[in-house]
Amino acid sequence: MNQALFIPSNSHFLKTLTNFFLDKHSLDDIKTLKVWCIFPTKRSGLYFKNYLKEKLKLKKIEAGFFPRIYSFEEFIEALYTNLISSPFPQVPSILRVFVFLEVLSKRLNFFSKKEEDNFEKYFNWGIKFLEVFEEFEKEGKIPENLLYPPEGLPELAKKLFEELKTTYLEFSSLIEEKGFSYYSYRLKKVRDVLKEEKVFNNNIFNEINEVWFIGFAALRRVEVEILKYFKEKFKSYFFIFEAYEPIPSIIRDTLKALELDYKWISPDYYEKKEIKDPQIYFYETTDPHLEVKSALEFIPESLKNPDEIVIVVPNPFNLLPLIYTLEGKENPIEVNITLQYPITKIPLNQFLKNLIRAQKEREEKFYPTQVYLKILKHPYFLALEFEGGISFQKIIKEIEDELRKIGYLKITLDEVENLVPKYRDYLEKIHKIFFRNWESIKTPFEFSENLKNILNFFEPLFEKLKDEDSWHSILLRNYIHVLETKIFPIFEEETYLKDKSFSGSFLLEILEYLLKEEKIPFIGDPLKGLQIMGFLETRLLSFKKVIILDVNEGFLPPAPSFNPLLTDEIKIYLGIPIFRNELWVYYFERLIKSAEEVHLFYIFVEKGKTQEFREPSRFIQKLKWELEKEEKKPNEKLIPLYFEILPEKEGIPKTKEIKQSLLDLIKTTEISRYFLETYLRCGVKFYFKYLLKLKEETKIGLRSFDIGNFIHEFFENIFRELEGKEVLMENVYKENEVLEKLENLWLSYKFERKMDALSHFLSKKIAVETIRKYFNYLIDKERAGEIKSTKILGVERSLKLLTECNLFDPSYEEFRNFKVLFSGRTDFLIKRKEGITKYLILDFKSNPDIRPYSGKEKIDKMFSFSLSDKFDNLSLYEVADIFGSDLSGFQPRFYYYLFYQQKEKFITENDKEFVVINAGFITPSDFKNPEKFVFNLSKRGEWAKIYDYFKNRFKNLLEWILNHIIISDKFYLPADDNICKYCEYKAPCKNYRYLLE
């Protein structure tokens, strides 16, 4: 058998190869030009040439005759263009999809008459089937029809597998008819041409005296046949492999396929004469940013040679944190990046994806409000400034405020322009470029023009960014280059798209596919500085120090992309080889063995709420196991996630000036139950809301209080005209009239614009049923004699009480009497006869589960409670606790107090006649118990204690809360952090809670 040569990984493969090559050929000899050296990758060939140049420099020779150095892809390109009489240009895979779909439309009867509908429907299947065809082409096979396709596939896929041979042959024929080519097609074409006898007379073979195939492994059948052709036709050839003991199975299989025996190269050629095992260090952490930061600690301030250090990045999404951390170094180092970055995370790409989403989710002229705002709030927009110095940030702020006021989930562009008419001119231009132009696209060329209009719109901003020396600027320039060179031409020039009519939705799908699949290249000097590489780019290269990030399952080895048409089962059916992880094991081990020092970082996160489960790669486990077999302890380091524990403040300190402001606020403000409840719930929120007067952000869509407001207004509409009258609900409730009022009011609230269709349908059904059930509940009570009559004393009735309170005055540092206005508005104030007369202060609640914190134990707690003489956080929490953890008991008691203090305005009975005064909630959606009261008492003596409390003692409690607002040292944070979960002031609160002194 013919011999192959093995070079050990730990001898420095390419430099050892250089020594061997120079022993065979002189760079002074012109014949060296006819030696062709073929490498698996372009980069390995580039490094080889650099090492040849270094040898020349050692001899102080400036120039020489170098061999022809090709990557395998360049080698196939050279053969294809020289051996084929009329070579076809390569086309993007997306255009081959259209060729495939054209074949389908002729062969199968799955299609409708409208061609573009067929393309839309089967576009994604076309992409998957192209991968199947490529697999056959790499194997040099024509697929056979499958009589029994695997179960579980869709009907279209089964039909195609049944006619796979005919479909593939027609597809290949149409590709040639169109004059298209692509890599696997060229590969197979070269193999076929090389079988012809006369091909060896081609001029290209006159340029080759000797051929070297260097570092190949896991060859496909067509590749094997091409390499064997050169082995047979040329007397002088070399097959060089990188290997180690024991010989990797992937190398043994390659030798067998090429019919080669092997021997190890003589140690005389070794670049490294002293062979040592690498020092391997393992680092475990839970945080990717900490992983990057720790890895960069091994990078010196400067590097002389490109093969000193490599950082290998198997997970491309870790590239940006890495380069931004490098950019932040005090002494920036020169960097060369070989891997391509997925464009999905680029800001402009995310912006375009939101434009696509807006069109996909548009319903006629209605756009989803959140997506609309996401587009306009993009940093590129916010950086714009219009004539007259008007910033777009100001415009979008006003638009957002208006949209939050109306709360519509979907909005038309005309409605937005009407909301802020003073900015109509600016908005019409923006709406045209970013929205209206996309609504009625008819041709791909129009689509491309729309994209260009967007770039032109942002051109002034992009020009500024391009001038910046930053990675963001580099990414932007490269992204725009990808748009201009890879995406625009598809919509403008190519056979299947130019000037054709497709639906806008299909063109958006094509753009979305391209924006997901394309990658951004980086330009750098591959022979200078710190090398940052993808894992496969390291093939055949050797570095003194190797740093690999994310040595985790799913990244090393990588999780293969899933194609349902190329499962292992289907590959067996089709006779396509299955490569598992042997190749990745080989590449990993040869990289490790070629280095002197290796640093392996991996993330270990057990299943949790905030991060996905991540585990170390099987490569890590294997390395540790091998070290332990040799009775060597692995060098392991745990990189803990350092938390800087900032002292949590109890609250925001109050200065004397603030305390004076608080007294002034109390003297001049109507003290509502919201005012007091806010303070009891969270002093910091009180500070933001009432002292700083920060506005709470209004939610877009249905807000928590919308349904409550609706219920309040509905009952107000029903009962307002009955104020002062004594009625029976049986006479009030005329179902058709009441439900008509409900329908009209529902429409006026525009709930259909604030909810999705299903929620709106269900909510309206619930509202109708709730109203019906509540009135029937009252009518049943009347018919049973439990309610004899109801007199409406007030609907949305204001209850105000101006009274003297003994408050602390910071200016005089003493307590003084001040007039304070307590204020409330009760939803429903009624006089009801139920055997005895009852005066009821009621509030409507939409939540059926809310309770007014009632019961004997709670009443006793209120009576027995003693106010503290301290004004600290604990005393405040104790006061809040007597009203329930959610303070649901405060409102009815507060309104009770306001009513009782001026009861003579409402109660017409004389003092000797016993009446019951009670307060509570009406929860109509609680069908079984829609009325809930604070006090459920039966004895007159018990009621007397209640009346006495609200006559003489409840004011003391209110007075104490007001004094706490003034006197306490801080605006205290809540005792229960759950209160903070949905707070509108989370962002500013964090600063006060942890950061401010």
Automatic annotation (TrEMBL):
A Pfam family assignment: PDDEXK_1
Coiled-coil segments: none
Domain PD-(D/E)XK endonuclease-like intervals: 675-990
InterPro entries: P-loop_NTPase (IPR027417), PDDEXK-like_dom_sf (IPR011604), PDDEXK_AddAB-type (IPR038726)
Protein name per UniProt: PD-(D/E)XK endonuclease-like domain-containing protein
Organism field: Thermodesulfobacterium geofontis (strain OPF15)
